[in-house]
Design brief:
Shape: elongated
Biased composition (Low complexity): 111-129
Protein name: Zinc transporter zip1
Subcellular location: Membrane
Number of helices: 11
Helix content: over 70%
Region (Disordered): 110-133
Largest sheet: none
Keywords: Membrane, Transmembrane, Transmembrane helix
Structural class: mainly alpha
Order of helices and strands: HHHHHHHHHHH
Distance between the termini: 21 Å
Number of strands: 0
């Protein structure tokens, strides 16, 4: 067994295992620290940026140069991958989440209005018998209305995974949307690793993927745990964990039966997804409290991948 195949097999096993572990943690951890999760995401963001820029994009450019291709195809394909990921995760997924949140908000408002009507009917009937309870019934209705407004406000903040982790809703559709989007992302990342033809490059991509895998899986697990039973949570996490192995397998097929040009194209496209994870996703993580700590951690992740490039 050659070293390249061994690295890909180990990466496949670890990606699947970390996906399962990260996704099943919400069953055990009923209370967790969002800041610790954000620290891990910040480190993964720096690793992704380093992997995309320092390793994948530069390697594909060098491969194109060896083929005496003057046009900067790697940079163009990287941009295509970057903007495709933006469409998937910044435009399409948030719109679907907002549609779901809007429907839930309408359902919640309708239920709260019905409960308010019932409570007002009961209070009015009591007032006919005991007039002294009128003031208390009015105060109770005010509290109910204020609680309803709070729930409606929470319903409009599910356009980012980190915001969903901090919310208190339990949508049935949100986990399905998250699993679909992140599975597709995982397959793209796996394609890059499977298409690699060099050991050092495959190791750097493996580091980036494994650093990100448990946090994405944890987000899906937290969303699924609130809306479904533990059995369905296991099914969702199992499907998500198969994303990277599937991508690796497809990438290996493309590298085996296709030319080296196919591998370079796949790596260039995947570099765009890595740049997205290292820039726009990291920007969301850096917002909030103690942002300077998360910024330093992001730099550490990028520095780690830059140091790894010395041995490449």
């Amino acid at each position: 067994m050659n070293s390249l195949l061994l690295v890909k097999i180990i990466a496949t096993i670890l990606a699947f295992a970390l996906g399962l572990i990260g996704g099943l943690l919400p069953i055990k951890l009923h209370q967790y620290s969002p800041f610790k999760v954000q620290i891990g995401e910040a480190m993964a963001g720096g690793i992704f940026l380093g992997g995309g820029l320092v390793h994948m994009l530069s390697d594909s450019q060098y491969g194109m140069f060896e083929k005496k291709i003057q046009f900067p195809f790697p940079a163009v394909l990287c941009g295509v991958g970057f903007y495709f990921t933006i469409f998937l995760e910044v435009i399409l997924t948030p719109k679907l989440l907002k549609m779901v949140a809007k429907k839930e908000s309408k359902k919640g408002t309708k239920l709260n209005q019905e409960s308010s009507l019932e409570s007002s009917t009961e209070s009015s009937s009591q007032n006919e018998i005991i007039n002294e309870d009128k003031h208390d019934a009015t105060n109770e209705r005010k509290v109910l209305v204020s609680d309803t407004k709070g729930e409606e406000t929470l319903g409009h903040h599910h356009n980012q995974i980190s915001e969903y982790l901090n919310s208190k809703t339990s949508s049935k559709a949100l986990p399905i949307i998250l699993v679909t989007a992140l599975c597709f992302h995982a397959v793209l990342e796996g394609l890059a690793l499977g298409a690699c033809r060099q050991v050092n490059e495959s190791i750097s991509i493996t580091i980036a993927e494994l650093a990100h895998k448990p946090f994405a899986s944890f987000a899906i697990g937290a969303a699924t745990y609130r809306a479904y039973s533990p059995k369905l949570l296991v099914i969702f996490i199992f499907l998500f964990s198969l994303g990277s192995p599937l991508g690796i397998f497809l990438g290996m097929l493309a590298a085996t039966f296709g030319s080296s040009m196919v591998s370079l194209v796949i790596i260039s496209l995947a570099a765009g997804t890595f740049l997205f994870a290292g820039t726009l996703e990291a920007k969301e993580v850096l917002n909030g409290d103690r942002d300077w700590i998360k910024y330093i951690v992001t730099l550490m992740g990028f520095a780690l991948m830059s140091i790894v490039a010395i041995w490449n």
